[in-house]
Amino acid sequence: MASEYDLTVHEAHDLLKSRKLSSLELTKAVLERIHRVEDKVHSFVTVTEDMALTQARQADENIKAGNLSPLTGIPALIKDVMCTKGVKTTCSSKMLSNFIPPYDATVVERLKAAGMVMMGKGNMDEFAMGSSTENSAFFVTHNPWDLDRVPGGSSGGSAASVAAGEAIYALGSDTGGSIRQPAGFCSVAGLKPTYGRVSRYGLVAFASSLDQIGPLTKDVTDCALVMNVIAGYDVCDSTSVDRQVPDYTKSLVPNLKGLRIGVPKEYFVQGMESGVEQVVRRAIGKLEELGAEVEWDVSLPHTRYALACYYIIAPSEAMANLARYDGVKYGFSAKEAENMWDAMEKTRQYGFGPEVKRRIMLGTYALSAGYYEAYYLKAQKVRTLISREFAETFTRYDALVTPTSPTVPFRIGEKADKPLQMYLSDVCTLPANIAGIPGISVPAGFTDGLPVGMQILGKPFSEETLFRVAYAYEQAAGWQKRRPNL
Ligand code: GLN
Question: What is the pLDDT of the chain when averaged over all its residues?
Answer without folding.
Answer: 97
